[in-house]
């Protein structure tokens, strides 16, 4: 028995805990990555249990909600899940427009999209248990707190999709991720727009501000790499005031949200033995833009399919293909983003800010130079 299991045994008396369920595959977290993995595994003919600590899937919304049109090639997107289509984004450096990039996409209603994906998984045969928080992963399975009661879920394969503080990542002994921190408000938009807006400023180190239109509303937010300094709250307040003064948005704040965004690239260990990581738990977000929904869904599909194949064949070695399959799809995309993130951080205090942004943001040809 490993040291972690012994500690859990001492703290919780694991041997005496009730077995809540047994499943071939257990997925922790019912976001886009987890639900995609669950549906893929169930399609492979194995039993799947998906756990989520929330009472309502998709709430609270912690996302700017912009996805590329190509997401629809990976998963059907019902009309109700789409707030509006956008043609691309306009980039500003120190509040001066410097580029307009065509990048067709959707602004989602994540409070609709996430429950849809979870229900789609359930319809494929997945069992979903909400208000079930994973406390730890042991050699017996997943220890969960289900409405105040500790119990054990036994599993053949465990997939972690529960964000940066993943207990599966802890079990694999992954080091802490490099994180950016974001805060976002939803406000009324004074004039509808088909273009998202991205703002870079020295007061937003290692990140940017955004305005993503949702018909008569807009998601307005800021993300900052706190290792470079700055204040998320201050930057968002200043950005909000600027947009109000410019007559772009109203003053009323309808909703506030925020959270951590992995910006250090994929974890070096995304799989170990019968454990796998997907989505934010695996660092499946672009190091510069923070884009994560599309790669999370793709990673979930890959991981779920391999998990089913592994269970059917009785061979855990099947799972070792996971990292390679993911990197075949996103490796070059993430590698360049990671290199540009390093370039940005290394030159943050000494480079001309406008030149630095042009070299590290993919709206400009300089981003694609070596």
TrEMBL record:
<keyword id="KW-0443">Lipid metabolism</keyword>
<dbReference type="GO" id="GO:0016628">
    <property type="term" value="F:oxidoreductase activity, acting on the CH-CH group of donors, NAD or NADP as acceptor"/>
</dbReference>
<feature type="domain" description="Digeranylgeranylglycerophospholipid reductase catalytic">
    <location>
        <begin position="188"/>
        <end position="259"/>
    </location>
</feature>
<keyword id="KW-1208">Phospholipid metabolism</keyword>
<dbReference type="Pfam" id="PF12831">
    <property type="entry name" value="FAD_oxidored"/>
</dbReference>
<dbReference type="GO" id="GO:0008654">
    <property type="term" value="P:phospholipid biosynthetic process"/>
</dbReference>
<dbReference type="InterPro" id="IPR011777">
    <property type="entry name" value="Geranylgeranyl_Rdtase_fam"/>
</dbReference>
<dbReference type="InterPro" id="IPR036188">
    <property type="entry name" value="FAD/NAD-bd_sf"/>
</dbReference>
<dbReference type="InterPro" id="IPR050407">
    <property type="entry name" value="Geranylgeranyl_reductase"/>
</dbReference>
<keyword id="KW-0285">Flavoprotein</keyword>
<keyword id="KW-0560">Oxidoreductase</keyword>
<dbReference type="InterPro" id="IPR054715">
    <property type="entry name" value="GGR_cat"/>
</dbReference>
<keyword id="KW-0594">Phospholipid biosynthesis</keyword>
<dbReference type="Pfam" id="PF22578">
    <property type="entry name" value="GGR_cat"/>
</dbReference>
<keyword id="KW-0444">Lipid biosynthesis</keyword>
<protein>
    <submittedName>
        <fullName>NAD(P)/FAD-dependent oxidoreductase</fullName>
    </submittedName>
</protein>
